[in-house]
Specification:
Strand content: 5-15%
Keywords: ATP-binding, Coenzyme A biosynthesis, Cytoplasm, Kinase, Nucleotide-binding, Transferase
Strand order of the largest sheet: 2-3-1-4-5
CATH class: Alpha Beta
Catalytic activity: 3'-dephospho-CoA + ATP = ADP + CoA + H(+)
Bound molecules: dephospho coenzyme A, adenosine-5'-triphosphate
Structural class: alpha/beta
GO biological process, one term: coenzyme A biosynthetic process
Shape: globular
Family: Belongs to the CoaE family.
Largest sheet: 5 strands, parallel
CATH superfamily: P-loop containing nucleotide triphosphate hydrolases
Number of domains: 1
Order of helices and strands: EHEHHHHEHEHHHEH
InterPro entries: Depp_CoAkinase, P-loop_NTPase
CATH architecture: 3-Layer(aba) Sandwich
Radius of gyration: 17 Å
Length: 202
């Protein structure tokens, strides 16, 4: 079975596409969900974040206030560099563990849904990499609408990632998500056929 990397800028539509691929039968490894699980009490990221950011990022129930951490790391490049250095090896180890587990199961396709696929170098773990692509104007509008950020906060998050033009250059496949949802899902249907019916590469 094939292992595909699915990426895109923040709010480009990765989760929308990966949800549909999951409905079609793909196994999805979601890096954001893995990062969130590891940041729950007892998880390896929880310990690291708590030690580094201190009591200011703890909620009354002892869980981390991820929004507060986000405010720090997207405003301070050195804090983001710290988080990338510290968190990415822990997240990658968990992705590798889950990937090995999925490979032992009979699934038609494995998808690594990773926002920072190219930035982190994890595109090397896959056979093909697919970018969910939107214009910067569409990205900004969808991000502000979905998360309620003002324009400055939204732009800070977009600026923290590799420019979309560079992601386009590195991707093997593009899904154009500027249009309506049915137009996007039709492209996914075609890719699904190719990824699951063009022979077994492993
Ligand atoms: C900073 C944290 C606590 C903020 O949590 P929050 O729930 O508010 O946001 P969430 O995790 O849903 O991230 C939303 C989006 O922000 C972007 N993003 C997250 N972390 C980063 C980062 N270090 N650099 C650039 N963009 C990032 C991604 O596009 C992601 O999809 C959290 O994102 C985190 O732990 N980040 C470090 C781990 C990481 O790099 N995750 C990205 C996938 S590997
Ligand atoms: N084709 C579309 N038409 C209209 N709205 C869309 C379309 N695709 C996605 N959206 C909306 O845009 C927002 C961002 O989509 P989604 O959450 O799938 O992005 P994402 O890339 O997973 O984001 P993140 O990087 O933050 O995890 C959501 O509110 C989603 O409902």
């Amino acid at each position: 079975m094939k292992v595909i990397g699915l990426t895109g800028g923040i709010a480009s539509g990765k989760s929308t596409v990966s949800r549909y691929l999951r409905e079609k039968g793909a196994a999805i490894l979601d890096a954001d969900a893995i990062a969130h699980a590891l940041a729950e009490p007892g998880g390896s990221l929880y310990q690291a974040y708590r030690r580094h950011f201190g009591a200011a990022v703890l909620q009354a129930d002892g869980r981390l206030d991820r929004a507060a951490i986000g405010k720090i790391v997207f405003a301070q490049p050195e804090e983001r560099a710290w988080i990338d250095r510290s968190a990415h090896p822990l997240i990658q180890a968990e992705i590798k563990r889950q990937l090995a587990e999925k490979k032992r199961q009979d699934v038609p396709l494995i998808v690594l849904d990773v926002p920072l696929l190219f930035e982190s170098g994890w595109d090397k773990m896959t056979e093909e990499n697919c970018l969910v692509d939107v214009s910067e104007a569409v990205q900004l509008a969808r991000l502000m609408q979905r998360d309620g950020y003002d324009e400055q906060a939204a732009r800070a998050r977009i600026a923290a990632q590799m420019p979309l033009a560079e992601k386009r250059r590195r991707a093997d496949r593009l899904i154009d998500n500027n249009g309506d949802l049915p137009a996007t899902l039709r492209q996914v249907d075609l890719l699904w056929k190719e990824w699951t019916h063009d022979g077994f590469s492993q």
